[in-house]
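[audit] Reproducing an earlier prediction to check determinism. Same input, same settings, fresh worker. If the tokens differ from the archived copy the diff job will pick it up downstream; this log only records the rerun itself.
[audit] input (207 residues):
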Amino acid sequence: MGNPLRSEQDAFRFVLLTIGYFALIVIGAKIDVWVGVAVFVLLTAGIVWFVVSGRGRERPVPEAPAPSPPAEHRVLVLANESVGGAELLGQLEAHAAGRTLRVRIVAPALVSRLEQWTNDDGEARAAAQERLDDSVAALRAAGVEVDGELGDENPVQAVEDALRTFRPDELVLATHPEGSASWLEQGVVEEVRERFALPVTHVVVNS
């Protein structure tokens, strides 16, 4: 399951705020039980307002990986659907502009809410592996240097994980059409564009 705390700084801040929250309640309760209750109600109401009003949502600072080797054009493909069509391949080769095209495909396991609750992601991982195998085979058949890996069930986290070992020049997101997109895909293109300082191409795949 994806980690909602995106960095060590986020985790540290969360721990400090949690400690402060409970410390104030305990101090209030030592003064008087009703003071403790009042502190709890006020702090909780303040947190709810902060979250609901959107004031707690900081716009992320775009992350950029180190540049790829000069002779290569590297593309990271987030494959929520199988890829490898001639149109996409033509775009990638045009962007490469004579450099060696190298592609890494990341296929996240699109785990449903029910599968999350039951901790049963076997079927989703099997589908992701099949999607990955089909995509890698299609691009290799077209002569592209390509490898792939299964990714985190959170598509944005899957991209972040891949950036640690692969330095792309651009990102390609292959998703289902809007009407059949899974809940995990909703808003993922916009979030990726906000999160990473890289060109992003969105490809809708009709399966």
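[audit] rerun output stored. Observation attached for the diff report: The chain has a mean pLDDT of 77.
[audit] end
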